[in-house]
């Protein structure tokens, strides 16, 4: 979280998802107003403790919009379309899904049978070994994208390996990495995960120079910052990819960018990713769904459709702070991908109160306002 400053935001950003207080009032209730229809500020300040809590709930409500997957509107519940929808389910689950599983399995067999010998037998030929491993990882990521019937359009020049440059992208799911990796073998900075994903991180992806962190460990920040500076100095290292939001956002918004990638003293190359929800929502809500279930959801959909833009590299301007630099790059990515900027830190989603607690506070606030006006 950036403590040294707060990004500027427009009034439209702060008006996002403003709740309607009437929704929390008992049915048939009305709030009496002054004779001229004006609600005076001092009347609200008389209940300032409750108002402060309610304001925090309103902020939280706006914040949670960034991390919710909005279900699509139902279209199949009529006599004409329901049989067609059932036919589509049969095609996706009984035909496409087995074919995709077989294809992905073949990909893993080819990958592992090539990667393991290269990794262990070419220990003394690091340059050749890294080159082959990069190509194998790109190939495996292509198998993953094929298993979703991925339709990905890349715009702009393909990234190249150069010292003192870092790529930053908005973040919707861990598949962002796979989609970008099939074109260029990036070294990514990523949260350490448990299970089979963690096993891949500590073995295969480790060979790409990837850097892992644990957000619960305060000492990790200094270690990661040092590794980042060392990595961007190497001419032969894979291009460094960072998701500065620090968490998955639902591809409608962008939250604050962490400033770490913008104080390395190197060129920043923005990457904008925009998913089309026509067939499936690619947003991964890690608090409600495991990554395995997320992949199954993608593999049982018709297709994953997205656009990737490699945008013009940016450098720190004279007199510009890293926070301002981060906001300028976020502006560029948000405009290109058609995303709304919101002034929240994504890490707050790991310390939010439960929805029931928030709703109870909102209800109490509505009731206190009602009692206040009934007393007058």
Automatic annotation (TrEMBL):
Chain ranges passing through the membrane: 77-95, 101-122
Annotated GO MF terms: glycerol-3-phosphate O-acyltransferase activity
Domain Phospholipid/glycerol acyltransferase, residue spans: 165-276
Pfam families: Acyltransferase
SUPFAM superfamilies attached to this UniProt entry: Glycerol-3-phosphate (1)-acyltransferase
GO process terms (BP): phospholipid biosynthetic process; triglyceride biosynthetic process
InterPro entries: LPCAT1-like (IPR045252), Plipid/glycerol_acylTrfase (IPR002123)
UniProt keywords, alphabetically: Acyltransferase, Lipid biosynthesis, Lipid metabolism, Membrane, Phospholipid biosynthesis, Phospholipid metabolism, Transferase, Transmembrane, Transmembrane helix
Annotated pathway: Lipid metabolism
Gene Ontology CC terms, in alphabetical order: endoplasmic reticulum; membrane
Compartmental location: Membrane
EC code: 2.3.1.15
Enzyme type, top EC level: transferase
Family: Belongs to the 1-acyl-sn-glycerol-3-phosphate acyltransferase family.
Alphabetical list of PANTHER family matching this protein: GLYCEROL-3-PHOSPHATE ACYLTRANSFERASE 4, ISOFORM D-RELATED, PHOSPHOLIPID ACYLTRANSFERASE
Name used for this protein in its record: Glycerol-3-phosphate acyltransferase 3
Organism annotation: Glycine soja (Wild soybean)
């Amino acid at each position: 979280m950036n403590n040294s400053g707060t990004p500027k935001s427009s009034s439209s950003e702060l008006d996002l998802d403003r709740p309607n207080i009437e929704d929390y009032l008992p049915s048939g209730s009305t709030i009496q107003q002054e004779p001229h229809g004006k609600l005076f500020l001092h009347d609200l300040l008389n209940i300032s403790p409750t108002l402060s809590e309610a304001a925090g709930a309103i902020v939280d409500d706006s914040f949670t919009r960034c991390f919710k997957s909005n279900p699509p509107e139902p279209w199949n519940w009529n006599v004409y379309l329901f049989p067609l929808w059932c036919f589509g389910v049969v095609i996706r689950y009984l035909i496409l899904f087995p074919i995709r599983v077989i294809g992905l399995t073949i990909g893993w067999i080819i990958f592992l049978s090539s990667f393991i010998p290269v990794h262990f037998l070419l220990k003394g030929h690091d340059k050749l070994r890294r080159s082959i491993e990069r190509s194998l990882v790109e190939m495996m990521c292509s198998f993953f994208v094929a298993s979703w019937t991925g339709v990905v359009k890349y715009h702009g020049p393909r990234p190249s390996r150069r010292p003192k440059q870092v790529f930053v992208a908005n973040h919707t799911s861990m598949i962002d990495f796979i989609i970008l990796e099939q074109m260029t073998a990036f070294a990514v900075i990523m949260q350490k995960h448990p299970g089979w994903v963690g096993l891949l991180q500590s073995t295969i992806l480790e060979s790409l120079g990837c850097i892992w962190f644990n957000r619960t460990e305060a000492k990790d920040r200094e270690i990661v910052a040092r590794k980042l500076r060392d990595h961007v100095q190497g001419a032969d290292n894979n291009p460094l990819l960072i998701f500065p939001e620090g968490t998955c956002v639902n591809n409608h918004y962008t939250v604050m960018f962490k400033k770490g990638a913008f104080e390395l003293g190197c060129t920043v190359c923005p990457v904008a990713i925009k998913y089309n929800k026509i067939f499936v929502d690619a947003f991964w809500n890690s608090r409600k769904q495991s990554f395995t279930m997320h992949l199954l959801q993608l593999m049982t959909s018709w297709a994953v459709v997205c656009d990737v833009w490699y945008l013009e590299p940016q450098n720190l301007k004279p007199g510009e702070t890293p926070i301002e630099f981060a906001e300028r790059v976020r502006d560029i990515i948000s405009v290109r991908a058609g995303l709304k900027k919101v002034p929240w830190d994504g890490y707050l989603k790991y310390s939010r109160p439960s929805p029931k607690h928030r709703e109870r506070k909102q209800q109490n606030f509505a009731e206190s306002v009602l009692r206040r006006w009934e007393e007058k």
